[in-house]
Amino acid sequence: MALTTALLAVLAAIGALASGHYANEGMLEQMEAANQWSYYQAKSLKENVLRSKLDLLEAFGKPTADKDREKLTQYKQEQEEIRTEADKLVKTSAHHMHLHTRLARSVTLFQVAIGVSAIAVLTKRRLFWYAGIASGIAGLVLLAVAFIGA
Question: At 53, is the secondary structure helix, strand, or coil?
Fold first, then answer.
């Protein structure tokens, strides 16, 4: 029974470490995505200011510079690149947070298994030990599924 509990503790530690890693990665990617969306908005503002300038010049019959038209096109291209990067970061962040959730559930099952196994040691009842093993196996399945999905 003691060996089972020790093995469950090792698996819980592995799951907790991996869960924390994926939570950190997910949050960092979410922050980077927010930065990308802010950058996208800044480019959009620049584009709108330049477009207003060109509209005003045209409304007053003044010539517009080809350089300004090229800059508008450049802003649009940059916005698409920024949007693509931000969307990618949002998706990878969501994936990492999903893995974190799965791993956190496996850790919970390992902790339950450790607790039930400790009760088995104290009460000297095999039924509790078997329940601990069953909970540990369920935690191991979730741990394996999370690592396969990584």
Answer: helix
Burial 40-59 (b: 16+ CB within 10 A, else e): beebeebbeeeeeebeeeee
What six digits make up the tokens of 89? Answer: 């970061």
| pLDDT tens by residue, 104-146 | 999 999 999 999 999 998 898 999 999 999 999 999 999 999 9
Length of the chain: 150
Tokens 């649009």 map to which residue?
A: 76
pTM score, two decimals? 0.78
HSE-CB of 118 using CA atoms within 13 angstroms: 9
64's tokens: 């517009």
Element (H, E) at 61: none
